[in-house]
Structures are given as structure tokens and as C-alpha cells.
Design goal:
By secondary structure, the protein is an alpha/beta fold. The chain has a single domain, classed as P-loop containing nucleotide triphosphate hydrolases (Rossmann fold, 3-Layer(aba) Sandwich), CATH 3.40.50.300. The protein is built from ten helices and ten strands.
């Protein structure tokens, strides 16, 4: 990576929606094969951070470096082609397409091609995706709207992996899922880290965040108010109560 040990480095970004000032000078770093979690209440800027990185709502000031190269000014499709994939909030699979068609979208000519990336990272194809998500293998010819919420989430993750990204941006993957399926999402994220992927996880589920995070940032009103390990956060009663909405563990 050109001039950086970090896969992703965010440097003092300021992001607006029109005249609304949403992100106030955020900085963070994420290395290959690590999971960084962004925690915070609704409306604090978590999804805006994901959109800023992906080029959907570009910051007006600051810089975002991916594999040592600035993303500022690049359109979202070019950022995606550089080796980044999103598992969006609400899954956003194509309801009228089959599971197979959803999975194959990132491999189409329209998706473009990217450089080979980290040779140590697992390469994904349809066979390895279906081995990871055997439930999808049984549903290949079903359309998206025929899947359960958990199956749709697995499809959204599988679709992202078909792009063979270095970095996966996950926005609230546990939202609306039963506890057993949340546990499955946790297992999937651990497997992805073991395969060499980096994950930036936006989440409200504290237990999930604490179980998978290598590092945690807590966001409040567009600013980071905490950065540390899961253990450090679990002992910080003030941050948990004021900015995450739970009492500290004793």
C-alpha cells in the first residue's frame, strides 16, 4: 500500500446533507483482516459515514485513503471496483431476481473488473459462497421476495463477497433478525476475518459488537466520543449509558 499500513484511513472528514452538517471531523483507521465497529444511537451519523466512504455522500473536507490512495472525487462505481463492497442497511437485494441472479450481479460486465488484490485473502466464487451459505444453495431459483429476513441477509453478504472485496462495509446486518440468526451473522464475520477480509461494521447490537470487534468507535452527533477495545468500552459506564443506551456490565 502506498505510504500506509492501513487498508482504510479516514482523515478529518466533514460531511453534509445540503446545509445540514452531519459528520464533524471524523478520523479512523482499519487494517487488513480486522473488524472495526461503529456504535451509536439512531441519527448520530453511522450510515452517513458508510455513505461518505463509498462516495455516495462525499465529504466536503478531509480525506479518505483506501489502499493508500485517496477516494475523494471518485464516483461510487469506481470506489466499488477498487475493492470495496457494501452490505447495506435493509439488505436491498433485488426482490424480483433469483438468488442466483443476485449473486452473479457483481461478476457481470457492468460491475467492471478490479485488480487481484491481496493474494492471502480467500477468493470467492459461486461454489464457495454456497458452501458458506448452504441455505442459499437450496433456494437458488427462488426470487428475493420469497426469502426470509435471515436468508435475505445471507444473500446480501454473499453478493458482496462475490465482488471479492478487500473491505466490506456492513450497515446494521443484525437488524430485525432473531437471536439465533444474529449468532450466525457473528460466525460469518469471524470467518470473513479469518479469510483475510477487513470489515467496517455499523451496528446497534452491543453484544454482537463486543464479540467481534478488534476496535470500537462510538459516534454521537457526528463526532467520535470513544475509541478503544471491546473490554475498554464494556467498563466505560458513562459512554455506554449516554451514547449507546445500555448500562455498563458489572
Amino acid at each position: 500500500m502506498a505510504g500506509s499500513d492501513h487498508l482504510l484511513a479516514i482523515r478529518d472528514i466533514h460531511t453534509y446533507y445540503g446545509d445540514s452538517y452531519v459528520l464533524h471531523g471524523l478520523s479512523l483507521e482499519l487494517s487488513q483482516g480486522r473488524i472495526v465497529v461503529i456504535l451509536g444511537r439512531n441519527g448520530m451519523g453511522k450510515t452517513t459515514l458508510i455513505r461518505s466512504i463509498a462516495g455516495l455522500t462525499p465529504p466536503r473536507r478531509g480525506d479518505i485513503l483506501f489502499e493508500g490512495h485517496s477516494l475523494i472525487g471518485k464516483p461510487p462505481y469506481e470506489i466499488a471496483q477498487s475493492g470495496m463492497a457494501i452490505v447495506p442497511q435493509g439488505r436491498r437485494i433485488f426482490q424480483s431476481l433469483t438468488v442466483r441472479e443476485n449473486l452473479m450481479l457483481p461478476t457481470s460486465a457492468l460491475a467492471g473488473r478490479r485488480k487481484s488484490g491481496n493474494p492471502d485473502r480467500k477468493r470467492w466464487d459461486l461454489a464457495s459462497i454456497l458452501a458458506e451459505f448452504p441455505q442459499l444453495a437450496e433456494r437458488m431459483d427462488n426470487t428475493g421476495n420469497a426469502l426470509s429476513g435471515g436468508e435475505q441477509q445471507m444473500l446480501a453478504i454473499g453478493r458482496a463477497l462475490m465482488a471479492n472485496p478487500s473491505l466490506i462495509l456492513m450497515d446494521e446486518p443484525s437488524e430485525g433478525l432473531a437471536p439465533k440468526l444474529v449468532q450466525k451473522i457473528e460466525e460469518i464475520m469471524r470467518n470473513l476475518r479469518n479469510h483475510g477480509h477487513a470489515i467496517l461494521l455499523v451496528e446497534q447490537n452491543l453484544a454482537l459488537a463486543l464479540s467481534v470487534a478488534d476496535s470500537i468507535y462510538v459516534i454521537s452527533s457526528g463526532r467520535f466520543v470513544f475509541h478503544g477495545t471491546a473490554e475498554e468500552l464494556s467498563r466505560n459506564a458513562e459512554i455506554l449509558d449516554s451514547h449507546v443506551g445500555v448500562a455498563a456490565a458489572h
